[in-house]
Amino acid sequence: MPLNTQPNFGEPGQRYFQPYSPGDDFYELLIDMHQGLSDAQSGTANARLVLLLANHVGDIAVLREAMRIARAGV
After folding, report:
1. CA distance linking residue 44 with residue 49, whole number of Å
2. Can you tell me the distance from the alpha carbon of 56 to that of 21, in angstroms, rounded to the nearest whole number?
3. What radius of gyration do the chain's Cα atoms show?
4. Lowest CB count within 10 Å: 3, 17, 28, 61, which one?
5. How many helices (H) and strands (E) are present in the chain, helices listed first?
6. Do 22 and 6 contact (CB within 8 A), yes or no?
7. Is the distance from CB of 1 to CB of 65 less than 8 angstroms?
8. Helix 39-57 crosses helix 21-34 at what angle (to 10 degrees)?
9. Would you list the domain boundaries of the chain?
10. pLDDT digits (tens, 9 = 90+) for 10-66
């Protein structure tokens, strides 16, 4: 499975009126996850989220490509 770098956010059964709305919903959830956390706690939450999502993806080749692209943008 190749890495999908196109917008791919959505929720089953949810209809969106703007194509960017599901991405906005995800961003809001991500910001809300950090509310009330210290910097150290936010870092831990981010690391746990990355590991949970990486486990869900499961494909090492896809994860390798995602890490390469993420690092190239820093």
Report:
1. 9
2. 23
3. 14
4. 17
5. 3, 0
6. no
7. no
8. 130
9. 21-72
10. 888 888 878 778 889 999 999 999 999 999 999 999 999 999 999 999 999 999 999
